[in-house]
Design a protein that fits this description.
Elements (H helix, E strand, L loop, with lengths): L1 E4 L6 H13 L5 E4 L4 H7 L6 E4 L1 H20 L5 H26 L4 E4 L12 H18 L5 E5 L2 E5 L7
Length: 168
Amino acid sequence: MTFIATAEAGDDEMTERIERHRADRPPAWTTIEAPIQVAQAVEQVDAEATIVIDCLSMWVSNRMLAEGAALETRLGSEPGAGERFSADCARSIVADASDLGERLRERSCTAIVVTNEVGSGIVPATPLGRAYRDVLGSVNQAVFAAADRAYLVVAGRLLELRDPSDGV
């Protein structure tokens, strides 16, 4: 089993959280830290090995923050920079998520992908929060379009998500 972890320790609390998660994993599991390059991490793992990617939500956040910082450096306070950030960043992340889904589908062994559903709550108050919600929703759809099965866990209950085209 290979665990692909996307979290980054940006502060003491997150460092502690990551250490706790590492300690909870079985010692026989291999861990690859991949906060940005998840698809490349998948390519490092033997196609016969089961993998767990935890999680897409953190990966999207990492990507948005990294790409936003890079764009801000290039564009500075140029008018319209924020709008271009949202559109360009979203397209890039969703395209990479589609690629990730296809890479996972091509594997001969099980791949388990963890993510969050952030679009069913209140509308975020900030433009970045709204962009994150929208991009994560598109990423989830892109990755799970290549999945055999998808589940939503609510209040400890596992709910299978079915494709509406299946006539359900």
